[in-house]
Amino acid sequence: MRVLAIDPAIRNTGYAVLEGDPRKPTVLAFDVISIPPKVSQSAALSAIRTHLVNVIQKFQPDEVAVEGIIYVQSHQTAISMGAARAASLIAAADHGLRVYEYSPKKVKMAVVGKGTADKAQVAFMVRALLGLAETPPSDAADALAIGMAHLQASDPLKAKLLDRRLV
């Protein structure tokens, strides 16, 4: 199975493409879609969608995994995160891909073994578990972790540990 994993945000959307064995997946690509602050929100959403469509066309994933909605203090932050998530979901829907959602706590449990792990711990474990030469940027590391959680949830031996929801 090949999965496109997305950590959506209006200015820095992380994504990763992984495939294969849940215990030792192969990383095909990962990056961060960075949108400068001077770019309007509508243009940023269009850029996120367009970039993800290009990734989908290039790598032909079977499924998409996305980070679920998280609690944030600011309504403005929640709205912009929701909009970035929508742009990601539309890119997937346009290509008929099933989208699965994972809470940040479940992703951290899958990769670090601790649901309260911080971003540095997630990035460190992603690097170690995937055998990467360098620690990926935090948003890309989060996307890689989401992809790893999805592959684990697809494994019948580990599926009970992760609640995967179809979006």
List keywords for this structure.
167 residues, 45% helix, Nucleotidyltransferase, domain 5, 21% strand, alpha/beta
What would you say about this model in short?
It contains 5 helices and 6 strands, in the order βββαβαβαααβ. With 167 residues, it is α/β, with parallel strands linked by helices. Strand 2 and strand 3 form a beta hairpin.
How would you describe this protein?
The structure is a single chain. With 167 residues, this protein is an alpha/beta fold. It is built from five helices and six strands. The protein has helices at residues 41-59, 75-93, 104-111, 119-130, 138-154, and strands at 2-7, 12-19, 26-34, 63-67, 98-102, 165-166. The protein has a six-stranded mixed sheet with strand order 3-2-1-4-5-6, sandwiched between helices. Helix 2 links the parallel strand 4 and strand 5 (98-102). Helix 1 (41-59) runs parallel beside helix 2, helix 3 packs across helix 5 and helix 4 (119-130) crosses helix 5. The chain is globular.
SSE layout:
Elements: E1 2-7, E2 12-19, E3 26-34, H1 41-59, E4 63-67, H2 75-93, E5 98-102, H3 104-111, H4 119-130, H5 138-154, E6 165-166
Parallel strand pairs: 1-4, 4-5
Antiparallel strand pairs: 1-2, 2-3, 5-6
Helix pairs in contact: 1-2, 3-5, 4-5
